[in-house]
Amino acid sequence: MFSNAFKVATLQGFDIKIDPSWALIAALITWSLSTQFFPSVYPNAEPSVYLTLALLAMMGFFASLILHELSHSVVARWYGVEIKGITLFIFGGVAELGSEPKTAASEFWIAIAGPLMSFALAFGFWVLAQVGGALLPDSALNHAIEYLALVNFVLAVFNLIPAFPLDGGRIFRAYLWNQNRDLLEATKIATRVSSYLAYALIFLGVVGLFSGNPVASLWKVLIGMFVLAAAKGTYAHQLQKAAFKGKTVANLMTRGVVSVDPGMNLANLVDQVMLPERKTFIPVIKDKILLGYADTELLTHTNREEWPTTKVGDVCVMSDESNTIGVDTSVVKLLEKISRTNKRKYLVADGRQLLGVITLTDLMSYMALLQDVRLMGNETKQG
Questions:
Q1: Is the peptide bond before 283 cis (omega within 30 degrees of 0)?
Q2: What is the pTM of this model?
């Protein structure tokens, strides 16, 4: 999801990563706090004081975000849900799930953990601000603490809005899932509500662009678009899981595929195999032993003038666990692997014996066909 994110720390066994887009929101928060918020609540101070307070408050806010996401991650691990890491990005933070909760109860507790942590932080900072205000009433630092109390409270309330990918969207889906025992139907309803809220937010943002405060209005539009995309993506993911439930690679792979000998040169690979067969992913086999594969990406790494003298075996991608899967692998697991690695084509083998190939295109074609058949079935019922 965040291919450019880089790791900065590890907490409780979870990698903490930062996406480059985070720098924009960090700079924007620091600027707005140092030029607007702190001058309004603590007037007549030096600009350096405002900047220092803003930097401290910004770091405190993102530390709070990490704790919010860490609470999701700890509860998820307790329920046996894989967490790939915690990433800070332009819209806040996210605990990236490597697998889905198995029950409505687990989804609820994983989702509610974040807002509960934020409410606890808000209360803790509020108490600290009250004590600090009593002991040091003129302390500039106390205003930063008050800000952290406020922002954590707002973060908790905002995340309870029933819209994906916010925690409230997952809580709402958990409620629906518990009521009707149908995860796909619960997801359909929850993402529909999310879409309505996203459209409303976008509308308010567009209106605001023409009636004042363009910065806040632009953020409403951007957040609305983000929520809309996340809602559609969540439902599409559940549709995929429902379509492929119980299916293994054996059900959908292509058998009897064309393969080539490692001694073939690249020019013949293109002219005699890829173009006539209209295939871009070709297994490489020697004496019935699977060696690897050749594809069009491989060709781009070799000068065209060298194709006639370059053997496939010298440049092919060797078969390993990153590109080769077993025939009994579930399609849902394969989709998770595709999402995690962005690799879309796989060899299917039993040991070193090739059984077939399977690609993301194969899976999407099956999905499209299944949807067409269901639509035809609905038309037949209506007729």
A1: no
A2: 0.74
